[in-house]
Write a structure and sequence with these properties.
The complex is a heterodimer of chains A (251) and B (477).
Chain A: E1 2-11, E2 14-24, E3 29-33, H1 40-48, E4 53-62, E5 65-66, H2 72-78, E6 80-83, E7 90-94, H3 95-109, H4 117-130, E8 141-142, H5 148-162, E9 166-170, H6 178-191, E10 197-202, H7 207-210, E11 215-220, E12 223-228, H8 231-239, H9 242-245
Parallel strand pairs in A: 3-10, 3-11, 6-9, 9-10
Antiparallel strand pairs in A: 1-2, 1-4, 4-5, 7-8, 11-12
Helix pairs in contact in A: 4-5, 5-6
Chain B: H1 2-8, E1 23-25, H2 32-41, H3 46-60, E2 84-86, H4 100-108, E3 122-128, E4 131-135, H5 138-142, E5 147-150, H6 151-157, H7 159-165, H8 176-184, E6 189-193, E7 202-208, E8 219-224, E9 229-237, E10 244-247, E11 250-255, E12 260-267, E13 279-290, E14 295-302, E15 307-310, E16 313-316, E17 322-331, E18 336-345, E19 351-360, E20 365-374, E21 382-391, E22 397-406, E23 412-421, H9 424-431, H10 437-453, H11 458-473
Parallel strand pairs in B: 3-7, 6-8, 7-9, 8-11, 9-12, 10-13, 11-13, 12-14, 13-15, 13-16, 14-17, 15-18, 16-18, 17-19, 18-20, 19-21, 20-22, 21-23
Antiparallel strand pairs in B: 1-2, 3-4, 5-6
Helix pairs in contact in B: 2-3, 3-8, 6-7, 9-10, 10-11
The chains are: A alpha/beta (251), B alpha/beta (477).
Chain lengths: 251, 477
């Protein structure tokens, strides 16, 4: 589904990604862990197409297409979703209006008619269950005045509505209390299917107690320095990131 | 980002066509003879001619205001023709007699004057250059005693009402442009709603400048008698021309005790090209007087004009009177706007609300200028002002000039202001959810303007959202 080869990227003059290789297949959950400044969020933003990052080399294929060639909205239409580390506030625009606008853009991109507003409401009612929310959230402005936990839940709600093939969750677990963490993790588990995949970018092992990954990667200094099964996350938690920085630890 | 956004902020002005129609145009220039000519063309009574001449003499002694935060080449008032009318043989008896070319013009503008195809529930008075070309739904309104007609007709048919209220809110010598208008105004709309009557439909005037080398100087007078209620909307467009055309209108609202007047404007005069060539100079005086328990509410969506200078105001004359001002002003290209409101609290327990949303794009310069004045006898007066500015790109500007003058210790005035920039992050967030850059900007801007749009009559709220899209970039849906 996703094939990254030798990906390098800069912010300004500074090289952040120094050659990433990563393959994700349908049905898999991958976790990327690593210390601050290792390039985890940069990788997520580059994949989603943030204009502040400049790709300087390498290739990314997504479902057979050259991902780097696409605008951010085209990547979204192709089935790539980024749950933001810091979801953006859009004052004055209700969650329901925003979700319907996004949903209809997806339908248009597939050559379908816009959804009937009543049908969309029915769909929304189902999707709200994923994040254990009532309908009152839909009348609030997008992320405006939301708590940190509510913003992250709202990202999961958007993901549930847009049904991506590949969802990248950029530190969606950070700043969550244990209840919010459980809701977010349950949301992800409910959306897991054999034909989609997840890439979880995280600092901590605790999310991985709830969403069990197939593969864990350690990112350090702009490169993936170690990959392994779910035990790797536990080992990292116990021994710290310095352990993988030691040359002997590099796989 | 800025280049990407700014490339989207290119406009296409779809109302820029010219109607080829024979017009009766007065010679250029302004002197007492021209004032007399206009008055006689309109068959006016002597008192009105005197009123005009007095205004003209006052105007001659006045100077064009230089305090607004706008820059433009001086207007040559002798190079303008002050009267232009489509040639018709006789006064019109009904809309069926209107020149088909004029009907076609309004049809292109989306304003059908043909009663069978009317916008449901909206009565329209259409002003083409200097004269009213037709008013719809008059019979239905007349059944309730509501008068809705062109100003010229009101002078002929209801001289008492006109004489009683003309200049009662905006005196002939109020300011340079109001005095000019008072001397040369050609037509406009007149509304009278009798005691206790609620007008059953929206009243609307649609202004169109067509002829070259002319200005438009219309005058609107709305009187809501005790306990009456009326909602009124004006729309404006003009052809694309290289020259600047002057629009100096006066609107007077009189809300007698317990009356409510809601006045909404969707202004889309031609704004000039990207380099600032051409476009309308929109120098307008709008003011209402609210007596005891009366309410006047101004809502404006200003997207056109090269230069805008207007401050729809409310004199809160009576006790418990309410004044409101909701505004969205958009500047783009080389447009400049200096707009806001004045709330003058005279009566006790008077309340006013001001919500201003300024959007600046391209090289546009947008200024909010507002005065809240609480006079010594206005015990318990309250004002709330919220003034928000949004910047799109790096070459535009937003300015705020609030003036607060409180002369009564029981008065309470609140002022909130904010400035934001449409961020790369907001746009990226929406794009990553599948929206195009255009739609992303549209969603953000409409969210920003929401508090104002919800004040517009339903039919026009949709129109305004569309218009905002057009002004910002060609075709934001």
């Amino acid at each position: 589904m996703l094939e990254i080869r030798g990906l390098t990227a800069n912010v300004g003059d500074k090289e952040i990604l120094k050659g990433i290789d990563l393959t994700i297949n349908a049905g898999e959950v991958h976790a990327i862990m690593g210390p601050n400044g290792s390039g985890k969020s940069t990788l997520a933003q580059v994949l989603a197409g943030h204009p502040a990052y400049e790709v300087t080399g390498g290739s990314v294929r997504f479902d057979g297409r050259d991902l780097l060639d696409l605008e951010p909205e085209e990547r979204a239409h192709a089935g790539l979703f980024l749950a933001f580390q810091y979801p953006v506030e859009i004052p004055g625009v209700t969650n329901s209006y925003f979700l319907r606008a996004a949903y209809n853009e997806f339908r248009k991109a597939r050559g379908l008619e816009e959804a009937d507003p009543m049908d969309f409401l029915d769909l929304l009612e189902e999707k709200l269950k994923v994040v254990e929310w009532g309908p009152e959230i839909m009348g609030r402005a997008v992320n405006h005045g939301f708590s940190g936990g509510e913003k992250k839940r709202n990202e999961i709600l958007q993901m549930a509505v847009l049904e991506p093939k590949l969802a990248i969750l950029d530190e969606t677990d950070s700043g969550l209390d244990i209840d919010a963490l459980r809701i977010v993790a349950n949301g992800v588990n409910r959306l897991r299917r054999p034909d989609n995949a997840f890439l979880l970018v995280t600092h901590y092992q605790r999310l991985l107690n709830y969403v069990v990954p197939d593969v864990v990667h350690v990112l350090a200094g702009g490169r993936i320095v170690k990959s392994g099964g779910k035990e790797l996350a536990l080992e990292l938690e116990a021994r710290g990131y310095e352990w993988v920085d030691e040359p002997a630890g590099v796989a | 980002m800025s280049t990407e956004v700014e490339s989207l902020v290119q406009r296409e002005y779809k109302y820029g066509f010219v109607t080829d129609i024979d017009a009766d145009i007065a010679p250029k220039g302004l002197n007492e003879d021209i004032v007399r000519l206009i008055s006689s063309k309109k068959g006016e009574p002597a008192w009105l001619l005197e009123w005009r001449l007095k205004a003209f003499r006052a105007w001659q002694k006045m100077e064009e205001p230089r305090w607004p935060n706008v820059r433009y080449e001086p207007v040559d008032y002798q190079a303008i023709s002050y009267y232009a009318a489509p040639k018709t043989a006789t006064p019109l008896g009904s809309l069926d007699e209107v020149d088909p070319k004029l009907l076609e013009t309004y049809r292109k503008l989306g304003i059908p004057l043909d009663e069978q195809k009317l916008l449901a529930g909206v009565a329209v008075d259409a002003i083409f250059d200097s004269v009213s070309v037709g008013t719809t739904y008059r019979r239905q309104l007349a059944e309730r005693g509501i008068i809705f007609c062109s100003f010229g007709e009101a002078v002929r048919e209801h001289p008492g009402l006109v004489q009683a209220y003309l200049g009662s809110v905006v005196p002939a010598s109020d300011n340079f442009f109001a005095a000019l208008n008072s001397a040369v105004f050609s037509d406009g709309s007149f509304v009278y709603v009798p005691k206790g009557v609620t007008c059953p439909m929206e009243l609307s005037t649609y202004f169109r400048i067509n002829a070259q080398g002319t200005g438009q100087f219309e005058r609107t007078l709305i009187v809501a008698d005790e306990g009456a209620t009326v909602s009124y909307l004006e729309g404006c467009t003009a052809p694309k021309r290289d020259e600047n055309q002057l629009h100096a209108a006066v609107v007077e609202l009189v809300a007698l005790p317990g009356a409510t007047i809601k006045y909404s404007t969707v202004q889309n005069w031609y704004a000039g090209d990207e380099e600032g060539k051409g476009g309308i100079y929109n120098f307008v005086t709008k003011r209402g007087k609210a007596f005891d328990r009366a309410k006047i509410s101004w809502t404006q969506v200003e997207t056109g004009s090269a230069i805008t200078w207007k401050y729809p105001s409310v004199i809160l004359q009576g006790d418990d009177a309410v004044g409101e001002f909701y505004s969205v002003a958009v500047v783009n290209g080389r447009q400049q706007a200096d707009t806001g409101t004045k709330m003058i609290h005279i009566g006790r327990n008077t309340r006013s609300t001001v919500v201003s949303k300024g959007i600046s794009a391209g090289r546009g310069q947008n200024s909010y200028r507002g005065l809240v004045k609480i006079l010594p006898k206005a015990d318990g007066a309250r004002n709330y002002t919220q003034c928000d500015s949004m910047l799109i790109g790096n070459r535009c500007g937003a300015h705020t000039f609030p003036y607060i003058d409180v002369q009564n210790a029981t008065g309470a005035v609140e002022h909130e202001a904010s400035t934001s920039k449409i961020g790369e992050d907001q746009i990226f967030y929406l794009k990553s959810r599948g929206l195009s850059t255009e739609n992303a900007i549209s969603v953000i801007v409409n969210g920003f303007c929401k508090e104002v749009f919800k004040e517009l009559p339903m039919e026009f709220a949709v129109e305004a959202q569309k218009l905002l899209g057009v002004s910002l970039e060609g075709s934001v849906g």
